[in-house]
Structures are given as structure tokens and as C-alpha cells.
Specification:
The chain has helices at 41-45, 49-63, 73-128, 157-171, 177-189, 203-210, 217-223, 226-248, and strands spanning 2-3, 10-14, 33-37, 130-134, 138-142. It has 256 residues and is mainly alpha-helical. It folds into three domains: 2-90, no CATH class; 100-149, no CATH class; 157-256, no CATH class. The protein is elongated.
Length: 256
């Protein structure tokens, strides 16, 4: 059981992976957790221990696709707001999975195309290497093979993306993969420098500090209430402060 900080604390429960029949409210495959929000505490407080026990058993049965029937009216009534939040979270999760799948396909195509370009350029450079003799006495060897040394550590995009997505999952950030790709490409095109023109020496630290600014705010705002939005914004600020203090101490946060 994991509890997040501040007023948007939530309870995460693992979901059983056993096979189940196709039901009208079937949860997503491979989704192994769900969230109970603390703003539902008022409902739980009004139940006695026996009623709360029946309700949590009903919730567990629901997320495991058992298509449960509420044992009594109190359980059915208390379950309605919980069911609504479960359905809302499921839609967000399914959209993120679709985005990741599409981004993975695009990434595979880019890698395949880049591999072909590297092979073609290598062949062209080797063909342009030549040797010539000047005045019959001076031998001149010319080659277009140039080795340029650099101290800039630019990671492969797959490593960059995997690290960013892992941190998004760990910190509960809603960042689409196309935003991660766009940030990588912009830094790379800028000579591996951030938006302020500063050289990126530790890319993991830099992307970790940048993720809060890449969140898909419009999608979140369409799905949440005013109270949830205010709680989320407060939580995001706490996360940004915590990340910055762990990296830089109490220095002022700068733009990325």
C-alpha cells in the first residue's frame, strides 16, 4: 500500500492478474493497481466497520472483473462515487497506453531510418577518400574521414525516453511521449543545451527537473473537478520543490 503526500493522498491497491470473463465494466488488461482518493473519506467515515468491510470487498471484486452485485443498498450507494473515479482513471490510463504504443512505433521507424542514413553516409565518405601525387615528387593523401572529439554526453533517445517515462510513472506525472521526444530533439538540435542555452552536463538531472513543465494540462483539466485541480497543482508544486531541493539545496528554481 502506497500513500502519496498532501491533500491528494491516495491508496494504491494491486489488481489480481487472474483470467476473467468479458464483462460490461471490464478493467484494462495489465493494469495492476487502482486508486482510492482521500476526498472520499467522508463516505467511509459514515460507515460502520461491517459496512466498510462489505464496501471494500465490493470494490476489490469490481476491479478484478467479477461483476459484483451490491449486497445491500448502503454498499450500492457508497460505491457510486468510487466507481465513477475508477472509470475516469481507467480512461486516462488507456489513453496513456495508446500514446506510448504509438510513440514506440514512431521511434522504431526513426531508428530504422537513421541506421540506413548512417550506413549510406559511411559508404559515401569512404568512396571520397583518395590519394594523389603532386609534381611527381610530393605524395598527398586526402581523406574526408574526420574524427571530432567532444565532451558532450548525448544519450540514445531510447535511454532518454525510458528514464523519463520511469520517472513519470514514479512521480505520477501525465507527460505524453511526444513531449518527451520534442524536448530531446530540441536539446539535441541546440548542441545539447537547454532552453537558456546552457550546456547540459547531467541529462538525467535536467529532464527530471523539466518533467513537471511537460505535463499534459489540458487533458487533466478536462477530467478533474475544481477541487481536484487545486489539489493537483499544490501537489505538483510540492514535487517540484522536493526535486529541486534534493538536487540543488535551497537555491532558487530557474527556468529550464
Amino acid at each position: 500500500m502506497k500513500v502519496a503526500a498532501s491533500c491528494v493522498r491516495s491508496l494504491h491497491f494491486g489488481q489480481s492478474t487472474r483470467p476473467s470473463a468479458i464483462l460490461r465494466h471490464k478493467m484494462a488488461e495489465n493494469k495492476k493497481s487502482f486508486i482510492l482518493y482521500c476526498d472520499q473519506k467522508g463516505v467511509w467515515d459514515k460507515l460502520d466497520d461491517a459496512q466498510a468491510g462489505r464496501l471494500i470487498k465490493h470494490v476489490i471484486a469490481y476491479v478484478n472483473d467479477e461483476n459484483p452485485v451490491a449486497p445491500d443498498f448502503i454498499t450500492e450507494l457508497a460505491f457510486e462515487p468510487i466507481k465513477a473515479s475508477l472509470k475516469r482513471d481507467l480512461k486516462k490510463w488507456e489513453k496513456q497506453q495508446t500514446q506510448r504504443s504509438e510513440a514506440g512505433k514512431r521511434s522504431a521507424e526513426v531508428r530504422k531510418r537513421n541506421a540506413k542514413l548512417v550506413q549510406r553516409d559511411s559508404t559515401t565518405v569512404n568512396e571520397r577518400s583518395f590519394s594523389s601525387t603532386v609534381n611527381g615528387n610530393v605524395s598527398v593523401n586526402v581523406s574526408d574521414n574526420v574524427n571530432v572529439s567532444t565532451d558532450v554526453d548525448i544519450p540514445a533517445y531510447e535511454d532518454f525516453k525510458e528514464y523519463a517515462l520511469d520517472k513519470c510513472s514514479e512521480l505520477n506525472f501525465n507527460v505524453p511521449e511526444n513531449s518527451i521526444n520534442a524536448k530531446y530533439q530540441s536539446w539535441k538540435a541546440n548542441g545539447w543545451r537547454n532552453g537558456n542555452g546552457k550546456k547540459i552536463k547531467n541529462w538525467k538531472t535536467t529532464i527530471l527537473n523539466t518533467l513537471p513543465y511537460l505535463q499534459q494540462k489540458d487533458t487533466i483539466e478536462q477530467l478533474e473537478t475544481k477541487e481536484e485541480r487545486e489539489a493537483r497543482e499544490m501537489m505538483e508544486e510540492i514535487k517540484r520543490q522536493a526535486i529541486h531541493e534534493s538536487l540543488y539545496g535551497n537555491n532558487q528554481i530557474g527556468n529550464v
